[in-house]
Amino acid sequence: MPTRRAQTGLTLVELMMVVVIASLLLAVTAPSMRGLILRNRLEGSVNELGMDLYYARSEALRRRATVSLVTNSTGTAYTLGTSTLALKSVSLPTGVTLSRNVTVAFDGMRGATQGDSSLDASVSGLTELALRASVTAVGRVSVCTVTGSLPGMPRC
Asked: Which PROSITE patterns match (predicted)?
């Protein structure tokens, strides 16, 4: 008489239960993951903008020439450069927009600007959060939240 071996593996019913539970977990966590991704996209873009403003100021002092950061007419990109030389061009991630047609110019002698400037940033699909990169007349850069809140980031 042949010996009977123990069955191993999952039955079809057990496998279907695993698929149902995984689907429910995914349905619950997907919306919060989307918000997290959008927040990170916006925060990363504004932090990069802040660093580029510092870079523009340092290049103005180094070159002893006016260096400007200029946003495009749609707010989806910006460039850094002098009147004759483009230093850097940045295209923002999908959905992130800045204030349109803004120019922040740093003086080549002191690294100062003509006055306080600010660039507001938002991301489509996340209306409860907007960030701002501000530059004082002496060239100091700060980043803050206009609406909403992010851990470790002050309100404007």
From this structure: PROKAR_NTER_METHYL (PS00409)
Q: Is the Cβ–Cβ distance between 138 and 112 less than 8 Å? A: yes
- Widest Cα–Cα separation across the chain: 98
Q: Are strands 77-81 and 86-91 parallel, antiparallel or unpaired?
A: antiparallel
Q: What is the pLDDT of residues 38-69, one digit of tens each?
A: 999 999 999 999 999 999 999 999 999 999 99
Task: Give alpha helix (H) positions in the chain.
Answer: 12-63
As a whole number of angstroms, the distance between CA 134 and CA 151 comes to 19
pLDDT digits (tens, 9 = 90+) for 74-119: 999 999 999 999 999 999 999 999 999 999 999 999 999 998 999 9
* Residues in CB range of 154: below 8 A, 6 or more apart: 144, 145
pLDDT at 2: 65
In this structure, the number of other CB atoms found within 10 A of the CB of residue 93 comes to 14
Tell me how far apart the alpha carbons of residues 118 and 133 are, in angstroms, rounded to a whole number.
Answer: 6
CA–CA distance from 52 to each of 25, 64, 76, 112, 144 (Å)?
40, 18, 15, 15, 16
